[in-house]
Write a structure and sequence with these properties.
Layout lengths: L14 H18 L6 H15 L5 H16 L1
Length: 75
């Protein structure tokens, strides 16, 4: 299966991409012990969508982007 790292920023969110975003979101929540309905989890969901809309489609890149976001905003 071919993994696309970056695509057009305004492309629609297809079901398989939505499933990827959900999988990444769920994985982050489980790893952090975070309630998916928490404020922090909402920020993560927004960030994942922002990354997706900016063209990031790779699971590893999405996962790697969130810890940096959390660290930067934790202080």
């Amino acid at each position: 299966m071919e993994h696309v790292l970056f695509t057009q920023p305004n492309s629609p969110i297809y079901p398989k991409d939505l499933a990827l975003l959900q999988q990444v979101f769920d994985q982050i929540c489980v790893e952090r012990g975070e309630d998916p309905s928490s404020i922090w989890a909402s920020e993560i969901a927004r960030t994942l969508l922002k990354l997706y809309k900016s063209g990031v489609r790779d699971e590893d890149l999405l996962l790697a982007s969130i810890p940096r976001f959390r660290t930067r905003n934790a202080a």
